[in-house]
Write a structure and sequence with these properties.
Blueprint: E1 19-26, H1 32-41, E2 50-55, H2 59-65, E3 75-83
Antiparallel strand pairs: 1-2, 1-3
Length: 85
């Protein structure tokens, strides 16, 4: 295998090097009883939100993995917070 010098440096990947915090909660259209059940199911403890920290470039995969983009989801993404790095 031959190697060669890269003609120019790779560009800085801002999304990969940026961290975000995702604020996830039970869907706002659920009843109080349903929201409590969802909190128990997903281990919210006494919190109102689940907080997930990830790279900005991976948010799409988190949303897809947690099925936050589906109509039948019991959770919703309330806010994405940019973290200082």
């Amino acid at each position: 295998m031959k190697t060669r010098e890269r003609p120019a440096p790779l560009p800085f990947d801002t999304d990969w090097n940026s961290l975000v915090r995702l604020w996830i909660r039970p869907r706002s259209d659920l009843s109080d009883a349903q929201a409590r059940a969802v909190r128990l199911e997903y281990g919210f403890d006494d919190k109102t939100h689940l907080l997930i920290e990830t790279r900005k470039a991976l948010v799409f995969y988190v949303v897809r993995r947690w099925r936050l983009n589906q109509e039948t989801a019991r959770l919703e993404l309330e806010m994405t917070e940019q973290l200082d790095t």
